[in-house]
Amino acid sequence: MDKPHSLSIRGYSGQTVPNKFFPAGEPANHLAIIFPGRGYTALMPVLYYPTLVLNELGADILRVDYQFNSEDFMRLPEEERDQRFYHEVSAAFQAGIAQGRYNRLTLVGKSLGTLAMGHLLETAILPDKVDCLWLTPLIGLEHLRKQIAGKRHRALFVIGTKDPHFNMAHLAEVEKATAGRCAVIEGADHSLEIPGKVSDSVRAQTRIIEAVERFFV
User: Fold this and answer.
1) Do the domain assignments include residue 6?
2) Which residue in 32, 94, 162, 174 has the fewest CB atoms around it within 10 Å?
3) Of 9-13, 19-23, 149-153, 191-195, minimum mean pLDDT range
């Protein structure tokens, strides 16, 4: 992998969107974009290890480090928050896809990041081959489920049974719509951790990584 650098990505108000671009080292036909959660960064385990898997696959990687958990942002009207978020998501995608001649795209998102993925599935012109890794997706939202069902892609859904967004009927709906795969972690919360025992949380992370590796085989 070549030395990482930042791309020029302009936010809603003209500010720079924090990011890191990791070139594979040789011209790649595969781009992966990582969208974190509101307070769950791309350097935390649930996103960090799938990024390493994609690195091993030889993908160029764009890690979008947007920050939407500040008090100032949360005080904005909901409509403006949505405009800012989706503007930055689209701008990041356009900056990433311009870095090469890609025929394969992998979108990876955690929680809020799954809304970014749904937005791109609905609005962006994507390569023919699209893989989506939905980590703790907000599948309680009907519009997200429609976005997931509306665009053909390979899908892996990872969620814990103690996640407030876990709903077996909703999960079955998106799994069927995509002919996708699921990794349901018993007892795991929205951080995909199992409260009360660290070793159980570590084993859960191992299960997630194994599911991700099988997905990309």
Assistant:
1) no
2) 94
3) 9-13
